[in-house]
Amino acid sequence: GKAQVNLIPLLPQLPTPNEIPVELTVEANPTFLIYVSESNFPVKEAQFTLLNGKGDKVIYEKAISLQDKVPGFVRISLPETPQIDSEQDLLEVEQTYNWYFTISYDPSDRSLDPTIQGVVKRVAKEESLVQELAKTPEINHPKVYADYGIWTETVSSLAQLRERYPDNPQLEADWIDLLESVGLDNLGFNALDKF
């Protein structure tokens, strides 16, 4: 049988449907959010893999437990450096990376595994962004990131704030706006709150 599960990355939407948008981050170790729908098979584990731009080198990979997280948002936070002894950042400035999120479905045929892909590029944190964040109340940080086109932190900072202040109406409205912008408003779930 075919695996039926929807994996929806929180990525900026493009006018061209089949192109993968490049999301921008200013962090060396950003956090990604992926919505995993209900499925017709027990979803236990996913694999997250980060490759360099050419796609010939694994920068980071991790098995992610999905127990009790489905349906809902799965958060993937990258570690600070690739190796403990490394001085190098996980994501380097002005470099583009490919990531894959794959659910283990049929061990005998990996090609059937539901998978999604994203492209992320780390850009330098402009001084003006740093200053803007410093003088803006934290609850408005997602908007600042959004103004600068820094998609990854727009999503992750908003998700973090939602978790911290679950009853804040402004954050709830911002979150719904964000989901609408990526075409997720039709999920109509309270899983808004389920991280």
Structure characterization notes:
The protein has 195 residues and is α+β, with helices and mostly antiparallel strands. The strands form 2 sheets. The chain has a 5-stranded mixed β-sheet, with helices on one face. Strands 1-3-6 form a 3-stranded antiparallel β-sheet, with helices on one face. A hairpin with a 5-residue loop joins strand 4 and strand 5. Helix 2 runs antiparallel to helix 3 and helix 3 packs antiparallel against helix 4. The two termini are 29 Å apart. The C terminus is likely disordered.
Calculate Rg over CA atoms: 17 Å
Structural class: alpha+beta
Overall pLDDT level: 87
Care to count the β-strands?
8
Total number of helical segments? 4
- Helix and strand run: EEEEEEEEHHHH
Strand order of the largest sheet: 2-8-7-4-5
The biggest sheet, with number of strands, parallel, antiparallel or mixed sense and barrel status, is: 5 strands, mixed
Calculate the terminal CA-CA distance, rounded to whole Å: 29 Å
DSSP helix fraction = 10-25%
Low-pLDDT windows of residues: 188-193
Shape type: globular
Strand content: 25-35%
Task: Briefly summarize what is shown.
The chain is 22% helix and 29% strand.
Q: Which short descriptors sum up this protein?
A:
195 residues, alpha+beta, five-stranded mixed beta sheet, three-stranded antiparallel beta sheet, 4 helices, 8 strands, globular, disordered C terminus
